[in-house]
Each structure stands twice: as structure tokens, then as C-alpha cells.
Amino acid sequence: MSGGGDWRPSASRALLERRAALLACTREFFAARGVLEVDTPVVVNAPVSEVHIVSATVQLGRTPAYLHTSPEYAMKRLLAAGSGDIYQVCHVVRGAESGRLHNPEFTLIEWYRVGFPLAALMDEVEALVRLLLGPAAAQRASERISYRDAFLRELGLDPLTAPDEALEEAARPLGFADRSADRDAWLELLMGSWVGPRLGRSALTFVHGYPASQAALARLDPEEPRTARRFELYCDGVELANGFHELASAAEQRERFERDNAQRRRLGLPVCPIDERLLAALESGLPDSAGVALGFERTLMLAAGASHIEEVLAFPTARA
Fold this sequence. Notes:
Layout: H1 13-32, E1 36-37, E2 43-44, E3 57-60, E4 63-67, H2 72-80, E5 86-93, E6 105-114, H3 118-133, E7 141-146, H4 147-155, H5 164-171, H6 183-195, E8 203-211, E9 220-221, E10 224-235, E11 238-245, H7 250-267, H8 276-285, E12 289-295, H9 296-304
Parallel strand pairs: 1-5, 7-8
Antiparallel strand pairs: 2-4, 3-4, 5-6, 6-12, 8-10, 9-10, 10-11, 11-12
Helix pairs in contact: 2-8, 5-6, 7-8
């Protein structure tokens, strides 16, 4: 029988205790703010359509289903039904993700605040992250910088105006050479491999104003339509959180789903069924809200000084 020798957990007892303590702190944090804990299905009928996220499929009867990569769609249905402020601590699964900071199955803390502007949500994210990081964040400042200014500062390129050839040239030293790559592929590579790892070294760094083409489920900024009302949080070069001023238009959301599927066809990727229940919820009226997902294991890694995500998981996928 193969694989029998690695039955033990990869996390120590001390780290398992710390994990439990930080999850308890998280629940206390939201309870003190009157945010309702909810629980939504892991198995869903429609996956996210973003081309850079791989959804795992499961077979339930004759119809394929999917393991959720985020509880976002279901939580927005709750918001539309009048739930008010909500949060969830849940396991999600994303295929093709593994490495020092990645395990295919991981824990998200995801929450939505009704009537919150994006700046207020960033304040709350910072408060929770400081609580979870503990002494590791005590002396650390915070900064908020636009996506554009982060690229200019760290790479000397304007991501909104630089020609595609300049982005490709900047990415060449990273060893990535794909002549079919589009502009967003170059930007995501540069953010993930060059700009992002340099952020959050001396301060908790919120990057906001992502390109409109990377809006995902965020609203576009009416004051700068080339950008979206989206932010990410970086600490010690690690992306911890991704937040949005949530898109509420069912028509625009349908257009984005269809655009994603068109790109999937071009890339030879599976086309995703559209989540009609989410669109119906948006059509019924989503309250003005901001939402964010925080990677719990990455936060725990930084709090504990761990160098690999397997150190903070009882059983990573390789040992499941």
C-alpha cells in the first residue's frame, strides 16, 4: 500500500492550537461587530468563470457539479434576501494551485458589509489582520497605494498606458514566454512575480484601483473608468486579501460571465454554466455593499513565522 508512511499531520500540535485560537478570535471579532456567521454549500451548480481559476468537478447523479472556489455567489444571494452583514469561515478548493503559499484546499474568511465604502472595509480588514498577526504586526505601519502607482514605484511601468510590448519585455526576465498571452496575462504575471512580492515589507499595503479588465465582481470606478473598485492586501510580499465594492447590476454581471466564457473558448478551457440564481438575486436587488476574502492559512503562516503552508495545515492535499 503506497503513501502509508505519511499518515501523520504536517502541522505541529502547537500550530494546531494557534490555528484554533485565531479562528476563535475571528468569530469574536465579528460577533462584537454584529456580523452574522453563515454557512453555504461547498458543492455548487455553477463555478466562477474567471479564466485564471480552476474549479474542481464532482459527479452527483447525472449532472456535474463543482466544489466552490469562494462562497461569494451564495453569500450575495443571502444579501439580496435581506441577511444584512454576514461572514463565513469555509474551506474552498481551487485546482492547479500548489506551492509554498498554495494548497488546493484552503480556508477563506469571507465577509460582506452593507453600506460600507471600500475605505471602511479596508479599515476593518486591517483591524482583523492586526489582531490575527499579533506581535508580528504591532510595529508595522500601513499604506494605501493605487495599482498604477505600485507598478510605477516597483517596476517603472504604467500598467494603464504601457504598450503590450513593454509589458512583455518586463516579463521576459521572469522566464515566461507565451506569444498568445494577452495584456491581462502579462499584468497578472508581473503583479504576482515582481510587484506583489515587493509590497508589504515595511507596512501593511493595500493596493487599490485595479484595471477594469480585472474587475472580477467589482464595480468600475466612475471617476476613473479604466479602473475597478477592488483592492488587495499585501504583507511581507504575500497577498492576504481581495476585496470589492460589489457589482449589483445583473445585466453587467451577465455580460462579464459571457465575456469570460468567450475567452475560455479562445483559450481552449471548459465553458462555465452561468449562475442564473445569482443573476436573479442581483435582479431582485443587491444592497450596496463591499466584500472581501482573506486567506486564513497565509495569515496564520505570517503570524507563526512559518515558511510553507503545509506547516499550518493538519493534512495538506498531498497527505489527504
